[in-house]
Each structure stands twice: as C-alpha cells, then as structure tokens.
Design brief:
The complex is a heterodimer.
Chain A lengths: L2 E5 L2 E5 L4 E8 L5 E7 L5 E7 L5 E3 L5 E5 L4 E6 L8 E8 L6 E3 L3 E6 L1
Parallel strand pairs in A: 2-11
Antiparallel strand pairs in A: 1-3, 3-8, 4-5, 4-9, 6-7, 7-8, 9-10, 9-11
Chain B lengths: L4 E3 L2 E4 L5 E6 L6 E7 L5 E8 L2 E4 L8 E4 L6 E5 L8 E8 L8 E2 L3 E5 L1
Parallel strand pairs in B: 2-11
Antiparallel strand pairs in B: 1-3, 3-8, 4-5, 4-9, 5-6, 7-8, 9-10, 9-11
Classes of the chains: A mainly beta, B mainly beta.
Chain lengths: 113, 114
C-alpha cells in the first residue's frame, strides 16, 4: 500500500540543537509531499510542500526538507531548535487521485531548555 | 480572508445522540475534505465533497456517518447514534481547486462521547 512512514513517534532535542524528523514514502509515482505542524488543540498548519522542481524545499519558521527519490525520503530539518517548535509534526502525501492526504502517524517534538 | 471555520470547537454527546459538525470553507473554496484524528494517531481521510456532490467517500464508515456540502451554507458531517469510539478530533480542509495540494485546515471539532 502506498503511504508515508514517520520514524520516531517522539523526538527530544535541546534548544539550539539540530532538529531532524524523518519521513519515508512509499510510492511508485512522483509524490506530492507535505509537512504539517499541529500545536496542542489546534488545527494543522502547513510548514512546507514538495510538488515538482527543486528538491530542497524551504518552509516557514526556518524549517526545510529535502526530497530524495533514491532514498524515498522527505526528512524535515531545522538547524537550531527553539522552544516554540515543540509540537506534533505530520508528514503527508497527496495520493494519486489528489482527493486525499495520507498522513503519517506523527512525531512529537520536545525541546529541552 | 477568514480561514476555514469549524464549529463547534468542542462537542459533548451522550451515547446514542446525534453529532453535527460544521465546516465553512475559505472564501472562494468549493472543495471540502473531512478527516478524523483518533488519539495518538495521524489524520485519516473520511470524505471529499464539492458543492452538492460527494466526490470520494472511501474513508467514511458505512453506517451512521454522512456528509453534505449544500449549495448554500457550510459543509456538515453528521454522526448518528454516536458511540464512545467516535470520540476524536474531526478536521475539515478546503481548497480552491480540485486536488488538495493547496488545502487549508480548520482548527477542528473535538467530539467527546460520554
């Protein structure tokens, strides 16, 4: 089945450290891939997306992600974590029909002061 | 331009009652998507609607759940005879064009069944 997999349901980093959240996709066709952030009791906010073109995608709040077809990955990174980055992060794939997103199970990011 | 508006934000229903969740898409958006988020899980697609049409309901439970998006007014997700397992956060997203690559999400309705 085509889907996305997020490795690590919980990630903890120190403030100022590198953030790396992993996402792998399973698709036989070029995917549209997204990262969303969800703060407690809030909706989803789009961080960034990859559709076509440049494989390194920059998003909001200093986040970026690189689409690597050879590794079927779309990992999310941020060079320096901030306390306000603590949230749930979801990787998503827009399926072949475009009718729906397939979401990963999420990674909860904790930032340690 | 207001975002996607969902109401109520929180809804408590007793087992057997009906729950009605509303979603007003962003201005100019005619495509609406509903997702359900169970505790400790990601979002799961339920249904995709355009004005007056259900396009894809492959994620909808076969019984008790229905959705509509009338010509006028918000999209409604209706759950009849709710059970404890229906307790979840229900999110609506909207897009201007078909295909949800440009979808924007609402803040969700958190349904608690007691």
């Amino acid at each position: 089945a085509q889907s996305v997999t997020q490795l690590g349901s919980h990630v903890s980093v120190s403030e100022g450290a590198l953030v790396l959240l992993r996402c792998n996709y399973s698709s036989s066709v070029p995917p549209y891939l997204f990262w969303y952030v969800q703060y407690p009791n809030q909706g989803l906010q789009l961080l960034l997306k990859y559709t076509t073109g440049a494989t390194l995608v920059k998003g909001i709040n200093g986040f970026e992600a690189e689409f690597k077809k050879s590794e079927t990955s779309f990992h999310l990174t941020k060079p320096s974590a901030h306390m306000s980055d603590a949230a749930e992060y979801f990787c998503a794939w827009a399926g072949n029909t475009g009718n729906q997103f397939y979401f990963g199970t999420g990674t909860s990011l904790t930032v340690i002061p | 331009n207001a975002g996607v508006m969902q109401n109520p934000r929180h809804l408590v229903r007793r087992r057997g009652q009906e729950a009605r969740l509303r979603c007003s898409p962003m201005k100019g958006h005619s495509h609406v998507y509903w997702y359900r988020q169970l505790p400790e899980e990601g979002l799961k697609f339920m249904v995709y609607l355009q004005k007056e049409n259900i396009i894809d309901e492959s994620g909808m439970p076969k019984e008790r759940f229905s959705a509509e998006f009338p010509k006028e007014g918000p999209s409604i997700l209706r759950i009849q005879q709710v059970v404890r397992g229906d307790s979840a956060a229900y999110f609506c997203a909207s897009s201007q064009i078909a295909g949800n690559t440009e979808a924007f999400f609402g803040q969700g309705t958190r349904l608690t069944v007691v």
